[in-house]
């Protein structure tokens, strides 16, 4: 059963869910499988379909991933890029950014408690290519976004995060991921609290839209 959302509504209300993830309600694994079934319909370069999907529900493994994530977040929190520099933006934009950073801190503290961790991976070799990697990740990340859309349509929330990649090797060893398979994104997934989501506030389109020339 999916929610009665129009395509535009689904696309504009699939948000990064952190504080509103329901940490106490179990997620049926069949529902997660449905979302992955949708995800693997995404385009992939050369139709190679070289993605892999780690779904982690074991409490001990989730706790270990949570510890690595907290360590990565602590390093990020002490970096110059933490929260983004929005000093030149409006009061409204700064308020939004404050809420985002607060929710990110919450997720870092509770990552290990999120019922399902989905890690989207791709066969890439032990060493990533030194040249433009758009082709590689372009064969995985659209599918990861499709997973989030499918989850939203089924009443689940998720958050897109890559902070764990600071400890990619350690997490791969923890989960038995082969050396030639690289992680692309971690999607903590759970039911969400509250009723629904609304579109986010964005900068005016004409500040980022360029026609023919920059």
TrEMBL record:
Origin: domain of life: Bacteria
A UniProt-annotated Pfam family: Nitroreductase
UniProt keyword annotation of Oxidoreductase present: yes
Keyword Oxidoreductase in annotation: yes
UniProt entry keywords in alphabetical sequence: Oxidoreductase
Entry-linked InterPro entries: Nitroreductase (IPR029479), Nitroreductase-like (IPR000415)
Record domain Nitroreductase: where: 13-178
Family membership: Belongs to the nitroreductase family.
Protein name: Nitroreductase family protein
Organism: Pseudonocardia alaniniphila
